Amino acid sequence: MQIETLRRRLRALGANPRHQYRVLRLWSQAKPQDDGPRPIENFLPASLRAALPDIARDLAALATLDAEHPGEDGSRRLVVALADGQLVESVLMPTAGSRQRAPTLCVSTQVGCAVGCVFCMTGRAGLIRQLGSAEIVAQVALARASATVRRVVFMGMGEPAHNLDNVLEAIDLLGTAGDIGHKNLVFSTVGDPRVFEALQSRGADQVRPALALSLHTTRADLRAQLLPRAPRLTPEELVDAGERYARLTAYPIQYQWTLLDGINDSDEEIEGLVRLLQGKYAILNLIPYNAVDDLPYRRPAQEAAVAMARRLHQRGILTKLRQSAGQDVDGGCGQLRARAVQAQPP
Ligand code: SF4
């Protein structure tokens, strides 16, 4: 279901924009419909009041908890059932020990994914279907029923750029009625010109999310092998586009680098990163890979990852070595876990 479908249903029941906002606010913040000093029944049209229980039931059915897997690090992986029985994952990330992070939820935007990154389990199955904008918000509402969420990262299953309209519709709702700060909404992508166009053209009065770009290597040829169906932007073009958006919004771009032992941890890559990112308004997140059965990629030794982060830091690149949240839980999406991260000091 799309948020616009829900709005149409509310309008047909006589809801004006203020009524719609109220219903959407309570849903996206997982608050009961009678929350607040003035019960909602007092000022909604009678037709809408009568339909509220049905609407609440339909919204709750969009995303239900199929299973929950707690991690030793305090993360909680939620296996979420959609109304048609498809499963996606959301991850609630721990905040204990983190100095700056708001309580964060990582959400999925597609069932499966068409990008086919060679190190990712989700990519192996291809794209099964898009999530509707309401299904994306429903993951937040579901998580908020049992936890505080102040930051939402679109880094779960799927490539948000391939479901752009629905992801932006969900972002608009979460950044307004959902009460999530705009820079705490993080749009993650392998880099797609349509994303840069759509985000760049947003006015200052619109929700402008922060941006995370999956870089993974500074070599265009290696990037084409690792991300076989990502748009053919060179690393330089990706960073140029990211820098324009960072300057527009005044939030740094987060460059994601899944660290693969012996593949993208060489001296050549360190030099490439210094060349690409020095002086840029950027944070580099090094995320040691979570090895997945049947895939030939390995996680580098912790000391090697720490040394790489330190060398980059010394060369002026703001680098964070991040630990994957929920490493000890057996997730269906290797990269969901690999990107669901908490900061560690370099
Ligand atoms: Fe898709 Fe992300 Fe997996 Fe790549 S890493 S295949 S973009 S879900």
TrEMBL record:
Q: Which NCBIfam families match?
A: PRK14464.1
The organism's superkingdom is given as Bacteria
Query: Taxonomic classification, please?
Result: Bacteria, Pseudomonadati, Pseudomonadota, Betaproteobacteria, Burkholderiales
Question: What PANTHER family does UniProt report for this protein, alphabetically?
Answer: 23S RRNA METHYLTRANSFERASE, RADICAL SAM CORE DOMAIN-CONTAINING PROTEIN
GO cellular component terms, semicolon-separated: cytoplasm
Entry keyword annotation includes Cytoplasm: yes
Q: What SUPFAM superfamilies would the database entry show? A: Radical SAM enzymes
Instruction: Fetch the InterPro entries from UniProt.
Output: Aldolase_TIM, Methyltransferase_A, rRNA_lsu_MTrfase_RlmN/Cfr, rSAM, rSAM_sf
Requisite cofactors: [4Fe-4S] cluster
Key words of the record: 4Fe-4S, Cytoplasm, Disulfide bond, Iron, Iron-sulfur, Metal-binding, Methyltransferase, S-adenosyl-L-methionine, Transferase
- Family the UniProt entry places it in: Belongs to the radical SAM superfamily. RlmN family.
Tell me the ranges covered by the Radical SAM core domain, including all copies.
Answer: 99-328
What is the name listed in the Swiss-Prot or TrEMBL entry for this protein? Ribosomal RNA large subunit methyltransferase N
Q: Where in the cell is it found?
A: Cytoplasm
Q: What are the recorded Gene Ontology BP terms?
A: rRNA base methylation; tRNA methylation
Molecular function via GO: 4 iron, 4 sulfur cluster binding; metal ion binding; RNA methyltransferase activity
